[in-house]
Structures are given as structure tokens and as C-alpha cells.
């Protein structure tokens, strides 16, 4: 994981909404901004934080940049959180 605090990044509802949208596959910035109803500048800020936390990855394809979830970070988080499940007797 990166040095960015993932929990602070995930604390914002719009960033969580972006991740939910991306769970179904890649999207470009225009598609994301339209679905969220936010400006390109606001979206750019959210995408930057998500990228710095390694929660999303970007891919350039022709004239577009596509974003998708980095599932390996979520797998790592799930393993870490699983440590607190306690004994089930």
C-alpha cells in the first residue's frame, strides 16, 4: 500500500461512489463526472486521491484515460480486517 491514508480517502462519499461505479468495469473521466454530476476539476481531485492511495489504476487508450479498481489493495484490506474477527466458538 502507498503512504496515503486509505481510510481518509475512503471517508468521502463521492470517492466511495466512484469505486462503486468502477466495480462494474473501466470508465473514462467524462462518464464518471456525468454520473456523479460534478465538475471535471472536482473529479480530477478525487481521482488523484484514489490513485495516490492505489485504489484505482488508469489506462490510456487513444484519446481517453480509463480508470478501474485496483482489486489487490482491497484484497489486502480484507485480509487485514479479517484479523479482527475474533474466535468463533
How would you describe this protein?
54% of the residues lie in helices and 16% in strands. With 89 residues, it is of the alpha+beta class. Strands 1-3-2 form a three-stranded antiparallel sheet. The model has no long low-confidence stretch (mean pLDDT 90).
Q: Kindly provide the radius of gyration, computed on alpha-carbon positions and rounded to a whole number of angstroms.
A: 15 Å
Number-wise, the strands total 3
Global geometry: elongated
Order of helices and strands: HHEHHEEH
Strand order of the largest sheet: 1-3-2
- Range of strand content: 15-25%
Q: What would a concise description of this structure say?
A:
The protein is of the alpha+beta class and 89 residues long.
Task: Note the main attributes of this structure.
89 residues; 5 helices; 3 strands; alpha+beta
SSE diagram, text form:
Blueprint: H1 6-10, H2 13-22, E1 27-28, H3 29-36, H4 40-52, E2 56-61, E3 64-69, H5 71-82
Amino acid at each position: 500500500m502507498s503512504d496515503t491514508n486509505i481510510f481518509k480517502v475512503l471517508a468521502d462519499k463521492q470517492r466511495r461512489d466512484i469505486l462503486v461505479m468502477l466495480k462494474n468495469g473501466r470508465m473514462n473521466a467524462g462518464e464518471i463526472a456525468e454520473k456523479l454530476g460534478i465538475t471535471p476539476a472536482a473529479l480530477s481531485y478525487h481521482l488523484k486521491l484514489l490513485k495516490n492511495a492505489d485504489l484505482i489504476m488508469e489506462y490510456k487508450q487513444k484519446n481517453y484515460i480509463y480508470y478501474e479498481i485496483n482489486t489487490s489493495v482491497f484484497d489486502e484490506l480484507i485480509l487485514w480486517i479479517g484479523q479482527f474477527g475474533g474466535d468463533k466458538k
